[in-house]
Structure formats: C-alpha cells, structure tokens
Amino acid sequence: MTTSKPVNLQPPAPNEDQAEARDEMGRPATQRKGEVRLGREVQARIGQQLRAMYDDVVSQGVPPNIADLVRRLSDQDDGVA
Amino acid sequence: MKLDPAIRDQVLATVPSLRAFAISLCGNVDRADDLVQETLLRALAHIDSFQPGTNMPAWLFTILRNLFRSEYRKRRREVEDADGRYAETLKSHPEQTGRVEFNEFRAALAKLPSDQREALILVGASGFSYEDAAAICGCAVGTIKSRVNRARTRLADLLAIDSVDDFGPDRATRAVLAGGSRS
After folding, report:
1. pTM for the whole structure
2. Average of per-residue pLDDT values in chain B
3. CA atoms within 13 A on the CB side of B173
4. Which of A49, B37, B93, B99 has most Cβ atoms within 10 angstroms of its Cβ?
C-alpha cells in the first residue's frame, strides 16, 4: 500500500488585518479576491518602471534654489529674518 | 539657535526623493518645487519637534503630504482637471517632468485615485515600509496594502500589460492611451 505524503490542505493564512475586511469603497474583502491577480512579472515590470521614473527625478539632486533656502534657514538666528 | 549641521544634511539628503514624491503628487514640476520649499520652511521652523535619530525622510514626507492635502482641498476645482493640466505639463516641459520614455507610465499613474497613487509611490518607489507609509498617510497598514494592490492592478489594466512582452513600446497601446481612454 502506498502512503501518499499528506497534502497541505491548510487554508491560506487569513487576512492579516481583519479590521480591513471592507475596502474603502465599502466592498467586502471577499470581493477583492475576485480581482485579477497580477503575475509576478507584471508586478516586477510596474515596479521597475515606477522606480526608473522616480529615480530620474532623484538623480537631478537638490536644485540650487532649494539648497540655498535650506542653508539660509539653517544659518538663521532665532528671531532674525 | 543655529541648526545642527548633521540635521541640515539629513534634510538636504532627503530633498531629491521628497521632490520626486512631490512631482508624483502634483504632476507639475513648478508646483512640486513650491510644495517642497513650503515643506522645508515649515519643517525647519518646527525642527524642535523632530526627534534626532528618528526617520527624517518619513517626517518630511508627512509634512509635505499634509500640505499637499490641505492645498488640494482649497484648489479642488483646479485639481479636477488634473489630467488635462498634466497633459499640458508633459507637452510643455518634458525635460522637467522626466524623460519622454516615462510619459506613458506617468499618464497612467495620473489616472489613479490620489490615495492609491501616493501609496504605490511611497512603497514602490520611495522605498518606505508599509508601516512608514501608513504613518505618513495617517492610515492603517492594511489600508496601505490594499491601496498598493489596487494601484498595481489598475496600472496593469491601463497599460494593458498581459505579459512581459506587452510592456515594451507598443504603438497600438500608446495610441489608445493617447487618444481614446480619457474618462
């Protein structure tokens, strides 16, 4: 007789945050499960594009006028404009 | 009292990311830079309420977001045309909003509800933990998670990504995004 390995029939972990059982549109959480689940590649691609776009601005550094503003404000004595 | 140079440097080090976040909220570089300046004025005037050793980026992002939100309420009518204004910005200052290759992505991002967009940016681009993002937005961690998930789903939808292959430059998708999908 062959004994098959026990299959993991444990239900998926419950929603971490039961307080969030309804989303902001007031739809029950169960309805959200029906939404399209995104593949890992799609999520990764969105993440890449998002970071590329964001980092494009980050790489511009601190604009000179903002650097001046911070230096001016941080050198300023209390009560002296 | 002069500001501790170490604190000043932490502020300066946060500016590039703060600015990227502001641009993603405003969809307009000039307005974003005004918002960043206003945030820094506010932050440095209340620097005593920052506890050294805590998260400077999260503190500055929180101030910026709150300022943006209160301004948003004031300028509601103006912001309702955010898509149109955003498109104008892309046409007139492409070099300021970032490289042209990101425009399709930016346009899709601009169509997300603002709470979903900010959650996605904070977690997916600024690199904050869900916990920090929740603190910045003043909501529960679970709320941030569901906003990020919905933002990703909607973006995939808007960009019509069915597979990795579909993500690249696709003229048909671009034409649809540029022409017919205004809602």
Report:
1. 0.70
2. 81
3. 18
4. A49
